[in-house]
Amino acid sequence: MRIIFKKSYDADIGLFKHGFHAFWYMLLLVIAIALPYLVGEFLLGEFTSMLIWAVAGMGLMLLVGHTGQASLGHAAFLAVGAYTNVLFMENWGLPFLLSMPLAGLCAAFAGMLIAIPTTKLHGIYLAIATMAIGILSESIIVILEPWTGGVSGIFAPDIELFGISFNRYANITGMYWLYLAITVLILIGYRNILRSPLGRSFAAVRDSEISAQAMGVNIARTRTLAFAISCGITGVAGAMMGHFSGVFNNETFNIVISITLLLMIVVGGIGFIQGAFMGAIVIVFLPQAISFVRDIINGMTGGSSMTIPGLESGVFGAILVAVILFEPNGLWGRWLKIRTYFELFPFYRRDMFRRQKSYLKTERMR
């Protein structure tokens, strides 16, 4: 069991809890940097996809997990980031280091425009409103065919930095390192937002809007900022996804992507930054795990390779149901409980992590 002696309040808002905590994350970063030397190009491409999903998950996590606002339309902001990034590069000749953050700002502005009229909506009503936006975005992409290519789609150019071309098929190692750097920068910015007064306002609004308002928090402003920052991060993920896919159209960013994003952070652990990464691992590597197990079974039984339609969705749905029933805090929440059990053994109590109601009686019907 580790005992931490805190000498000031700064220890509560530090990036790391203690030196050993920082050591493990630095070790994880070193392993991530060395990954291209440890795995093949196929797996490296899967890890690159995982980073994209993790960034998109962090964007949605800020809104759902840390501010308590439901969203089923974040695929629309992925599309905004992907299309504006390509338009900035193709039409304005901007380099990727400028077009990507500008695409994120465009997505943030779009999110702010959506958040202003929906600040009074809560729960299922906000989810339905955002879902309608996600569905509407597919039609808007088709209508704006001169810029978006409509149903034919649009091609994302290669990323050119310092005379080096980054491409999924020609230079997946370089693309992985580039996306890893972007992910780390977003992660540091995300963590600093949570440590700031704004991040604490997000948590206050999530737990109880009435209590937050009593403490002087501007609810409408806080929710609008949360939506804008969330959509901005998601827009950056959309720019990354566009270059990774190479070509995309209106069907690439459909409502299924929005639902998958939401389910991903629930499985990973809603309210935890690490949950976005664990959920991304499940999303990306679950199909590969299913294929691996199927090949083993076919080899043992001597049967031919057979694909069952909807198997991946069924397995993911079963995982989601199991998480909701047995571990509402997701995979990262389960890891925290296992770690705490060994830290406190033999003084661990069975009901230590019993779920608590986080709402007031006046907010139950929202």
From TrEMBL:
Keyword Transmembrane: yes
Classification via Gene3D superfamilies: ABC transporter involved in vitamin B12 uptake, BtuC
Single GO term (MF): branched-chain amino acid transmembrane transporter activity
Keyword annotations from UniProtKB, A to Z: Cell membrane, Membrane, Transmembrane, Transmembrane helix
Subcellular localization: Cell membrane
Pfam families: BPD_transp_2
Main location: membrane
Full protein name: Branched-chain amino acid ABC transporter permease
Organism: Sulfitobacter aestuariivivens
